[in-house]
Structures are given as structure tokens and as C-alpha cells.
């Protein structure tokens, strides 16, 4: 087999809307052709990105940060993130209005997620409900709420569930509360909600060019939000203004000092709550 230095780097990418700005150069002229010589992109759910890096089936991946605490040897590429500094819209806890957070016994937990599930376990403890049981399920709000008291959904299915909020009441007759988990986290901790970062698997040789390719792609993506809104309005039943707001306000793509502090706060809280093994970010500096 060719060594990683000889073959293309295998990239585990997330197939939701939110990473679209990070992926711009890999998907669009004039850089896509050159990058395709160095990188092979595979599209999948966030939890699968974590699994691929853990098993060595990918070289670099957009990895839910919770995976850092359970996968030895992952290295964070500087500069890029999927984070949110307040409302995110696509990380939802949905519960029945009549059942308060402290009374929820079972939570259907989106199998696409690693990070949001860990944040939610911490939040449930902070809400005085350490006993809530998390049951893994595919993202399908109606099916989840049939099986469990509440549901956590992330990514595109969450954005669509929020759009459907009004119809949902009509369809099921059940009044639901939609908690924006990034907003809840910010309200309780004052920290941004960091979901994912680019990571390299153990043993994968990294030169500066790799980090530069990803940072440049992010910058080009952020300069092309209008084009992305138009492009994605054809792929998802969302209007351009919703997508534009999501990509330019709800999601934050720069792994800056505040996000590094957010990650440190998350790992500290997760270890204290017994949700993840203790993990220290090794002297990471935030990007500007
Ligand atoms: C903001 C989001 O962040 C995602 C949430 C993740 C998780 O919960 O593990 C992982 C990667 C991100 O794509 C989202 O998809 O809605």
C-alpha cells in the first residue's frame, strides 16, 4: 500500500450544510482540481468522521471535539472550526411542553452526533437531572418522540425540524419546546459551543501546506456566502435568507481564542461530570 506521503490524503468530511464554507475550495473552481490531486473527500455524518479517524480509515477529518478525549493521538489543525457563539439553530433538544427538563427520563440521542450528546449530558446535570437516560436513535423527530420523552437532533435534520415547528403542532397536536443547545450552553457557561475541528489521525505526516489549504478554503467560503446560499437553497427546503443567516451568523468558523477557551471549558466540564475522560488541549493558540 502507498504510504500517506505518496497517496492522496483521505478526508472525512461532514455532509451537512454547516461545513459548506470550510469546503469551498474542494468543491469549486479554481482550486478544486488542484486539491483533488492531493485530497480524496468522503462525505458522511459527524460520528462517522470520528470513527474513521479512530480506526485509521481516514487521514484527516472534521471531527466532533468529544472524540479528542477518547481517541489518543489526534492532532488539531489550527484555524478552522464549526462553532457557535450563541444561537445555532441546528443543535436542538426537543421536549414536550408539559414535561419540564428536570422530569425527562429518556432522551433519544441523534446517532450522527458525538459532541452535542456530550454537551447535553453535562447540561442535564446542570439542570438537576443526572438520571436522564440517553437512547441512540437516527434523526427523525416524530419517531424519536414516540420512543422517548425528549429528542436531540443535529445538523440538517434539526434545521428542517425547526422550519416544521408550526406544522408539527398541527400534525401531532402535541405542544413542543425547542431548546437551542448552543444558546443554553452560552447562557449557563458564558462560553461558545464548539462542535468540530479538523484533526489529523495519528502518524499522518502533516506539512504546513495542509493547514494552509484548509484555512484558505474557509476564507474563500466565507467570501462566497451568497453563492452558497443560492446553491444550498436548491439542495434543502430552506430559503436563501435562512441559509445566509445560518452560515454568516449562527455558525462561527474561526478557531479563535474564545473558541479555544470554549473547548477548554467543555473538556473541563465533561471530565467533572464524568461524561468524558479528562483531556488537556496542549498549549493551543487561537487563530485571528
Ligand atoms: C452545528 C453543528 O455541529 C455539528 C455537531 C456535531 C456533534 O454533535 O457531534 C459534530 C459536528 C458538527 O457538524 C450541527 O451539525 O448542527
From TrEMBL:
Pathway(s) of this molecule: Quinol/quinone metabolism; menaquinone biosynthesis
EC category name: lyase
One Pfam family hit: VitK2_biosynth
Record key words, sorted: Lyase, Menaquinone biosynthesis
EC number: 4.2.1.151
GO molecular function, one term: hydro-lyase activity
InterPro entries per UniProt: Menaquinone_biosynth, MqnA
Reactions the enzyme catalyzes: chorismate = 3-[(1-carboxyvinyl)-oxy]benzoate + H2O
One Gene Ontology term from the biological process aspect of the record: menaquinone biosynthetic process
Family of this protein: Belongs to the MqnA/MqnD family. MqnA subfamily.
Purpose: Catalyzes the dehydration of chorismate into 3-[(1-carboxyvinyl)oxy]benzoate, a step in the biosynthesis of menaquinone (MK, vitamin K2).
Name the UniProt record assigns to this protein: Chorismate dehydratase
